[in-house]
Amino acid sequence: MGSASYIDISARKWEQLNSLIPSEWRLQDRYIPSAMRLSPFDSVYKLDCFDEGDTGTLLGVPRACGILSTKEIEITEKWDIQGLLHEIAERRLSSENVALAFCKRAAIAQQLTRCLTEPLFTSALEQARQLDHHLQKTGRLYGPLHGLPVTVKDTFDIKGVDSSVGITALAFKSAGQDAALVQLLRSLGAIIIAKTNVPQTMAFLDSVNHMFGRTLNPLNRLLTPGGSSGGEGVAVAMRASMIGFGTDVGGSIRIPAMCNGIYGFKPSVGRIPYGGTTSGQPNGKLRVALKPVAGPIGRSIQDIDTVMRELVPRAEFFGHDCIPALWPSLSAPKKTLRIGILGSDGLVNPVPVISHLLKEVSGILARSKEYDIEIVNISPPAVMKKCMITGARLMDVDGAGPLLDLLAQTEEPLMPYLQGRTVRRSPTSIDKLYALCAERDQIEIEMRKDLWSWPLSTAYASESSGNPLDAIICPIAAHPVPRHDTYGNLSYTTTFVLLDYPTGTIPVRNLTEADLKLDYSDEYKPLSKWDEQNRKFWKADRKVYLNTPLSVQVVVPRLHDHKLCQVMDTVDTAFKIHYQGSNKAML
């Protein structure tokens, strides 16, 4: 890039992105939020541009704007994944018409929220035409995901396309080959229509950078869409794709799902190919530090299950980092469960509305008439308080030097949130790294003993599995979906990356006026400095949270990924039956 500054590069990249949206897919000005009229550069800093009108949802704009035909609205809204694939297989829908509808919807979502980084509309439509030709010529589907429109996080390399991950020094340097997951998806017939936005350095929970600007939450523009897979969460929530793929090393799949009121699934290491991603991190760091995983973000458990059923058994043939595995059909929800409710991690107590939600969820599951669910209230193991700190130290073993050096190449400044938080430190010495790995081993041993391997003679022993609990339900965050650049402690999500436990996000209901009246007791004493900081989310103007999604996290033991899907299906079904029957606020 020579001596080009980050501002020049950002302007060129933004111009390139806009050039890939056809003029006939452009929204009228009256539909575009005021915050979107800022340049990407200004959107990084001018948080005071939002007003009270920005709490309204954008989800209805694609249907109302006139860009999509009636048939295209039906294509993008009527079916789940199995239903859409069936329509294509029966030739009632062509892959080209499906891809076109989702490309147009992705273009609309981009103009409303800045969720995309690389529109791939031309190549997507060409692939769709090839799939149609194959089906017409052979009478056979190309693969079990024939014609399925998907999006992927910007980190996943696609040959001939940038993986800039929000860093200007990586712009205009296209990938030489496809990531393993991209190869796997395409081998099954899936069509990748776009890559999605991430935070600069991928080290915080707002998807914002100098090139692509700030991604907005379509449910409420005052609040964050989450990160680092925030663009992916928004694209799925706005039906710009049928399912998306993100990565998670501290919560980056589960948190965007929470912020956008949809479902996230963080598998164990080795289930979904991760290789072939760009992060700006040193090669090999992830082998010795905290290991990220790739996973789906979807609009239902059934959609996630449908895709995992095709990916997991084939993953070992595409990803050097994957293990052999099977994924049985999710024929019916699991009828009998023993679930532990973890109300706190011992480090940060949830604000009152999240604690109340856990009690509400506990009651719904315990009273379920469709399922036999035993609820056990559990306390956090003493060692759990160490998980976040150990995880953070493993994430930072390189001392942030490589990332800061990358930014320095174009004199790119850190995002406001990162300034003062991301500082150059000495890399972790080999002796300290050994000690951290030993500490992680000991934490894993103690957590396994305290959470999953109690003696069978206890009152919580499970006759079916030999374990006291089938799953744990706990918060994703200790607060509701927060404003931009304010996301708090990551202890509830980082913990389960350190332990490599499969975990998922389930939206429960929207926050109500009654929830806003909940408060701390006068006797409440903070557990830690992080707990004291967390209280500010509820002490400030909490009206901004009204009608925003409330979600919970489901956790199972390591490598029990299919069991996680089963449990999530049961729990989600129980929630839907309850809230539909009571006519309470639902997502």
UniProtKB/TrEMBL annotation:
Tell me which UniProt keywords the record has, alphabetically: Hydrolase
State where substrate binds: 202, 228, 249-252
- What are the positions of the active site? 153, 228, 252
Catalytic activity of the protein: a monocarboxylic acid amide + H2O = a monocarboxylate + NH4(+)
Listed GO molecular functions? Answer: amidase activity
Give the enzyme's EC designation. Answer: 3.5.1.4
Domain Amidase, chain residue ranges per copy: 99-565
A Pfam family this chain is assigned to = Amidase
Q: Please report which protein family the annotation says this sequence is part of.
A: Belongs to the amidase family.
- Its name, as the record gives it, is amidase
